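Progress note, sequence design subtask.
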């Protein structure tokens, strides 16, 4: 593959990327061009497609012309033939999710075109390296857990909480809990800035991904617990909103 690297170590915190020959139509038989965005250990990557026009030859975008996204990479910031991808894009701008985030310091996407000639112009977008601390849950992680948190008002009276890997896609088979513990004279107020979960066929009770809310009193203290469960088969976690009360 031909590789184009955008690295924050050169002082470039944001910039622009384009497909070959943009805005004129790209060539056929582009085997592989890798767009590689690498930040430091305290950063994540955001890419945003402002223009997008790839010839679509099938609904799944697996064959033909496509952009293949790798959002959850290790510290080596590399991909090979067996690296799992997160999504594949093709078609028009209205067909795709425009914004994508990495879960770590690197994001890579692959551009490929097949033998069919078209007048499609490709893509243009922007990238930005973000401080990942702004997406960290402001609570205590329970020992020996991955995503169970306790937020106590004796430590702080307000803060933020996030699902795993936010703002990137959350992992499959996740089950997380968020406990908000106030004093006897306090109540807990939660404001969700964004909820994007895969929706089930019917009600939220049968949804594969959902948020469950529990209210209780423990020794006269106000406790509110939120749990998030994620199904085994989840691939794209941002199809619709679903919340169970």
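Output:
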């Amino acid at each position: 593959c031909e590789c184009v690297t955008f690295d924050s170590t050169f002082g470039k915190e944001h910039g622009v990327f384009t497909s070959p020959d943009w805005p004129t139509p790209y060539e056929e038989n582009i085997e592989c061009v890798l767009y590689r965005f690498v930040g430091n250990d305290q950063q994540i990557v955001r890419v945003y497609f402002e223009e997008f026009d790839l010839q679509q030859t099938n609904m799944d975008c697996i064959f033909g012309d496509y952009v293949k996204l790798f959002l959850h990479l290790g510290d080596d910031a590399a991909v090979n033939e067996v690296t799992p991808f997160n999504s594949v894009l093709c078609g028009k701008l209205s067909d795709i999710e425009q914004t994508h985030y990495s879960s770590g310091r690197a994001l890579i996407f692959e551009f490929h075109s097949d033998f069919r000639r078209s007048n499609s112009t490709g893509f243009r977008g922007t990238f930005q390296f973000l401080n990942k601390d702004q997406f960290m849950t402001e609570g205590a992680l329970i020992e020996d857990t991955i995503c169970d948190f306790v937020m106590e008002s004796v430590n702080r009276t307000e803060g933020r909480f996030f699902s795993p890997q936010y703002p990137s896609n959350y992992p499959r088979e996740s089950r997380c809990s968020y406990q908000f513990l106030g004093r006897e004279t306090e109540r807990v107020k939660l404001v969700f800035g964004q909820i994007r979960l895969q929706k089930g066929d019917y009600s939220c009770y049968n949804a594969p991904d959902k948020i469950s809310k529990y209210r209780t009193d423990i020794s006269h203290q106000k406790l509110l617990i939120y749990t998030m469960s994620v199904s085994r088969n989840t691939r794209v976690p941002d199809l619709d909103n679903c919340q169970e009360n």
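The two ends are 49 Å apart (CA to CA). Work on this subtask will continue into the next period as scheduled.
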